[in-house]
Design goal:
Layout: H1 2-12, E1 24-28, H2 34-42, E2 47-50, H3 53-59, E3 68-71, E4 89-93, H4 96-109, E5 113-119, H5 135-143, E6 148-155, H6 163-183, E7 189-192, H7 198-203, E8 208-211, H8 213-216
Length: about 220
């Protein structure tokens, strides 16, 4: 099933978004075994994203094929030390103190981290991230920190059936991404889109999507 899902997705996902940018598929590997992750990588997945620090630590050396490693879950500051030097891109920098601590620990270890600023695009109380209207000021603060490179923005659209509202939210994320990129050539990624909404997100300009269920099927919480 995993191999077939990957094959079908790689055929279905456009190589580029409407802005001519390469679309990167990040496989969300929460609760997946190292064996199943390796099957996905062997089938063509080049990037994998972990949600939990312990899972990444436990399976780090078991993953074959040298995929790029992303951390896509909420990160506690006291666990940064376990990830430094092992993560290619942090998607979920959702508060200033996390950026400051990642900068501090990275500078002390001689490690510069690539990060995305998480935006709470739907203003949802259950999700972390900065409000869209605060994004520019937040970017300026974080971009000044040592041992960090701001590479773009990340967002999760609300789970709802109003596709027009989802499109408007995704469009507003793209507008902010373009605004930041016009001032900073290092801005590269707009990480937006999951298994239920990735098509809308790519249509509106996302160039990085995070899919789990579409690759591995429904999560089995007894699997790990």
């Amino acid at each position: 099933m995993i191999e077939t899902n990957v094959e079908n997705l790689l055929k279905e996902i456009p190589e580029k978004n409407p802005f001519g940018e390469k679309v990167t598929l990040v496989a969300a590997v929460k609760l997946q075994t190292a064996e199943d992750i390796n099957r996905a990588v062997a089938a063509g997945i080049t990037d994998i994203g972990d949600n939990h620090v312990q899972e990444l630590r436990d399976k780090y050396c078991q993953i074959e094929g040298n995929p790029k490693r992303h951390f896509i879950g909420r990160l506690q500051t006291n666990k940064i030390k376990y990830l430094l030097g092992k993560v290619d891109l942090y998607h979920s920098v959702d508060r200033i103190n996390l950026a400051e601590e990642l900068s501090k620990k990275g500078a002390a270890a001689g490690v510069t981290s690539d990060i995305l600023i998480q935006i709470n695009i739907g203003n949802e109380e259950t999700k972390g991230g900065f409000l869209l209207e605060a994004c520019t000021e937040v970017y300026k603060r974080i971009a000044d920190l040592p041992a960090l490179h701001v590479k773009g923005l990340m967002a999760m659209l609300p789970i709802e059936h109003d596709e027009e509202r989802l499109r408007r939210l995704a469009e507003s994320m793209r507008a902010k991404f373009d605004e930041l990129r016009a001032a900073d050539k290092n801005i590269e990624y707009l990480s937006m889109g999951m298994s239920g909404d990735w098509k809308i997100c790519i249509e509106q300009g996302s160039n990085m999507i995070r899919l789990g269920t579409a690759i591995f099927g429904a999560r089995n919480y007894n699997k790990i």
